[in-house]
Amino acid sequence: MNVMHAQSTMVRSANVSPCGQYLWSFSRTWDGRPRLLVVMFNPPTADHATDDPTILQLCAIASHNGFGGIVVVHGIPLCSRYLGDAIEMTRHAITGRKKDARMLQQNLEVIAAEVRRSGAVLIAWGALARKCPEWFEQVLDTIRSSLPDCATLYCVEKTATGYPMHPMAKGIKSVPKTAALQVW
Fold first, then answer.
1. What secondary structure, in 3-state letters, does the chain show?
2. Which of 75, 99, 159, 170 has the maximum number of C-beta atoms within 10 A of its C-beta?
3. pLDDT truncated to tens, each residue of the chain (184 aa)?
4. CA 184, CA 89: separation in Å to the nearest integer?
């Protein structure tokens, strides 16, 4: 189901599964410049009509770096306020739960399609990916194999353990709204 919502000069859209449990992608567009594809861990509380702090931060970072919008996909598409549910989804898929495996495979296809359309990809799933490293290696492999020759793979920074930093990282290395994208 594709849903669009325009408020002031921001155009918002989301591609959600018919059951509402999976968010395949969503976008925010504010001008005609190219959009930045962002690959994160799992869906935020934002939807087709509402922004959350993470999305507002991503919009600021993208605009600061010369983009006119963002398209966001997630390594794990499950909509849940509990990160443990998303992590369990990857474990269930590995151990043979067919529905989870099917949804994750469908999600990889969405990621690959969005990457092929993109001129720039920001990976930003944060250190949480260490809880399901095999899955996020597969996500990164999908991104790399789908990346057009003219496209660039970015992060805002790396975590101490080498993961692409989440835009809302806290502590010693918080990410400013004016963060420059770094080549991954």
1. CEEEEEECCEEEEEEECCCCCEEEEEEEECCCCCEEEEEECCCCCCCCCCCCHHHHHHHHHHHHCCCCEEEEEECCCECCCCHHHHHHHHHHHHHCCHHHHHHHHHHHHHHHHHHHHCCEEEECCCHHHHHCHHHHHHHHHHHHHHCCCCCEEEECCECCCCCECCCCCCCCCCCCCCCCCEEC
2. 75
3. 444 444 458 999 999 999 988 999 999 999 999 999 999 998 777 777 888 899 999 999 999 999 999 999 999 999 888 888 989 999 877 777 788 889 999 999 999 999 999 999 999 999 889 999 999 999 999 999 999 999 999 999 999 899 999 999 887 778 999 999 999 9
4. 27
What global pTM score does this model have?
0.91
Cα–Cα distance, 115 to 37 (Å, whole number): 7
Q: What residue numbers bound the domain in which 167 lies? A: 2-183
Q: What's the number of domains the chain is made of? A: 1
